[in-house]
Structures are given as structure tokens and as C-alpha cells.
Amino acid sequence: MKRIATLSAAVVVSMLVAPGVRAHSDLVGTTPADGAVIAEAPASITLQFNEEPLDSLVDVVITDAEGDVVAMDAAEAAGTDVLVPWPGSLGAGDYTVAYRVVSADGHPVTGTFTFTYTGGASTDTLPVIDQAAAADVLADVEQPSTNLPLILGITALVVAAIAIVLVRRRARR
What we know:
Layout: H1 2-17, E1 27-31, E2 36-38, E3 44-49, E4 53-64, E5 69-71, E6 76-78, E7 81-85, E8 93-103, E9 108-117, H2 131-141, H3 148-172
Parallel strand pairs: 2-9
Antiparallel strand pairs: 1-3, 3-7, 4-5, 4-8, 6-7, 8-9
Helix pairs in contact: 1-3
């Protein structure tokens, strides 16, 4: 009985201490980098992921410091990268890039990063983008998800099942 209790405790501790299995895609880098100050425009804004996202389920929205959408070009997946053509009329200022992609396993990956652009046209010449069309993408970005409650629930059920089996075996003897 003591051996089973020790084994059960070891299993529970290993489940709590072991790092979680991460089969989902993650953002591993951006160009421009998060928080970067750039003077020259790159050919595109690039988001690099550790897995290939599904090309048909990639959304990227660029907003200025006031929260106005300044670019919502068609982002394109190229391997593990998502490329957004540099908006030609992007003027000097602070910008936030919000993204939502779906990885090959079907899980959404969302987030934001910021950069400051010191070159380019005046911000007065930026095109007006339909705010309603961008709202759907932006709404999804701020909703990170976690499987921790599910993992803890399954662990609790396994521990309870082991305890019930042990108590019943002991009662039969």
C-alpha cells in the first residue's frame, strides 16, 4: 500500500513540476522588432512563427497611436513567416501590429507588437480604413487562452480515481 501511495505521489508531483507540452504555434520574432525605432521602411512587416500558419486564416491589422486602423493589407503566409506589404503611405509615428493566425493544429495564435517609424510621409496623408472591418480581428487579439484549468481538472480526476481504487482494495482485505 505504501508503495502505491509513493508512486501516486510521484506521478502527481511529476505532472505539476514537468513543463507543459506545447504543441501550438508561437510567435518567435518580428521585423521590425517589438519596441524598435526604425528610420527606413522595410519591404514588409514580417512575423516569424515556430510552425507554419494556415494561409487562409491570417489576419494582421496596423493601428496608429490613436488606435485608428492605418493598414489592413492582405497578409500572406510564406512557410513559417507571415508577410504584410509595407503600407506606402505610413507616416512617422508609433504603430501597433495586431495579429491573429491559426496554426496547422487549428489553434489560434494572437498578440500585438509595437514599433516607432521616424521616416516616411506625414501622418495626415494616411488612408482611412473601415473601422468596422478591422474590429473583428482586433477583438480576437486580446483573448489569450490557456489549457491550465483542463489539465488541473484531469489531474484531479486521475488522483481521485487512484484514491478510490486504493481505498476499495484496502476495504476488501
